[in-house]
Amino acid sequence: MNRRVWIVAAAAFGGLVAITSKRGQSPPHVPGDVEIFDPATGGPRNLPRIVMTNAEWRAKLTAQQYYVTRHGSTDSPFTGTYHLKKDAGLYVCIGCGTALFRSSEKFDSGTGWPSFSAPIDPRNVVKRVDRELMLERTEVSCARCAAHLGHVFDDGPAPSGLRYCINESALRFV
Ligand code: FE
């Protein structure tokens, strides 16, 4: 296929995915590289996106982790332990291990969900407007594996004023 045909095919595929995308599912996800911030080196790193079937994700994750990250489900508030956690460390993606948040940006929002004022780096997450539940929210997902993480709200602490409301089931503390 030449370049033009590829672009048309990719656009058509993207449209088809958008139309067939079900309620609560992660954004469309195609293979390719993505640049993320790597805290191990303190610099950028190009890594291949992780694309797996639902059956493969289901085998890798617990049922709750699977429904949250691959079908946009939400943990019940106050059910985990991370919302209270104050230890210094990193919160990485349960699906692919990408570093997403740091304890230095974590704050107690009182909501019962782990809350952060910012991601570790804007490149490590993807934001998308989500119009489910009749209201407009901004969904946050993992840049590398497209795991649904949670939502961003504009009632967070200064200076960002943002509150990343994240499901514990999408995270692993390291
Ligand atoms: Fe991930």
Order of helices and strands: HEEHHEEEEEEEEE
Which hetero compounds are present in the coordinates?
fe (iii) ion
Low-confidence residue ranges: 10-27
Q: How many H/I helical runs?
A: 3
Residue share in β-strands: 25-35%
CATH homologous superfamily, by name?
Peptide methionine sulfoxide reductase
Mean pLDDT: 88
Span between termini: 44 Å
Number of strands: 11
What is the CATH third-level topology name? Metal Binding Protein, Guanine Nucleotide Exchange Factor, Chain A
Query: Structural class, please?
Result: alpha+beta
Largest sheet: 6 strands, antiparallel
CATH class term: Mainly Beta
Percent range of helical residues: 10-25%
The spatial strand order of the largest sheet comes to 5-6-10-9-8-7
**Name of the CATH architecture:** Beta Complex
- Characterize the overall form: globular
Please state the CA-atom Rg, rounded to the nearest Å.
16 Å
How is this structure best described in words?
The protein has helices at residues 3-20, 54-60, 63-71, and strands spanning 33-38, 43-48, 90-93, 99-102, 106-107, 115-116, 125-130, 137-142, 148-153, 163-166, 171-173. The chain is α+β, with helices and mostly antiparallel strands and 174 residues long. The termini are far apart. The protein has one domain: Peptide methionine sulfoxide reductase (Metal Binding Protein, Guanine Nucleotide Exchange Factor, Chain A, Beta Complex), CATH 2.170.150.20. Bound molecules: fe (iii) ion (FE). Residues 93, 95-96, 98, 142, 144-145, 147 line the site of fe (iii) ion.
